[in-house]
Design a protein that fits this description.
alpha+beta; 2 helices
């Protein structure tokens, strides 16, 4: 998750590593803070942490009409691997299944152009062993 200088959450990602695959379930950025690189910064952090945990590939689903998200994922090395017809409802829409093979071809260090942020991640396998790590990132 990304927090601003006041501690408010401005972006978060819900994901898990299953065997050697990173499964990205949800990525969200506060509407007022979109289009400044927060999602890129957060996904790079998530992929770096997943790679450190042994993940070799990443996958996610996205609405076929979500061109902003598709652009982001394409820039980060994902490609469309399949389509799930009528996966989403209200409105009904196809999902595109995206994959990224490997993490070696992309610099995974966070390059924040987003001002002063705290990047917070969790590590560990169970809630009782999970440790929260936060670090400061600043404008380049």
């Amino acid at each position: 998750m990304l927090r601003d200088a006041a501690g408010a959450v401005v972006a978060f990602c819900v994901c898990w590593v299953i065997f050697d695959e990173l499964h990205i379930n949800t990525l969200a950025v506060k509407p007022a803070d979109r289009r400044v690189g927060l999602a890129t910064t957060l996904l790079r952090e998530v992929m770096a942490e997943a790679a450190a945990a042994g993940a070799k590939n990443a996958t996610l689903e996205v609405r076929a009409s979500n061109t902003a998200a598709l652009g982001l994922y394409t820039r980060l090395g994902f490609h469309v691997a399949a389509k799930r017809p009528r996966y989403y409802t209200q409105p009904e829409e196809d999902a595109l299944i995206l994959w990224r093979e490997g993490f070696d071809d992309l610099s995974l260090k966070a390059h924040s152009a987003c001002g002063s942020l705290r990047v917070c991640t969790s590590s560990g396998r169970t809630p009782s062993t999970r440790r929260r790590k936060c670090r400061q990132t600043s404008k380049r």
